[in-house]
Amino acid sequence: MLAQFTVFPVGARESLSKEVAKVIDFIDRSGLPYTVTAMSTVVEGNWDEVMALIKKCHMSMKRSHGRIYTSIVIDDRKGAVRRLTGKVDDVEKILKRKLHR
To answer: Is residue 100 situated within a structural domain?
Structure first.
């Protein structure tokens, strides 16, 4: 399963890098494959481990802020593995070139 998610405090200052870094640290330490982008993070794993990680990230942010916004998009394909990189690899094969990652 792939889960794309974003967690951030509502009503906080304009720059959120420090808050986001704390969440990314949880993700990095989880051992799950992931990709960080400027707008969200995509994590790959089974339902229980991914949802537990998202909950941990949300609750961590909630401890220091009164209002938290969490957005989750899930792509759950039976039997699929290595999708985090495999989906991009497939497109690169079709285009016959490497994409920016």
So the answer is: no
